[in-house]
Amino acid sequence: MTILSDKVYGCIAGAFVGSAMGAAVEGWEWRNIQAKYGVLQDLLPYAHYRNFAKPGSGRTRPAGTTEDGVERIKLLIPAIGEKKGRISAEDLGKTWLKYINPENFGVQMEPCDEVLYNIVASEVHPSYAGLHSDFTGIVSFARSCSPHWTHQCLRPSSGS
Question: What is the Cα–Cα distance from 31 to 138, expressed in whole angstroms?
Answer without folding.
Answer: 28
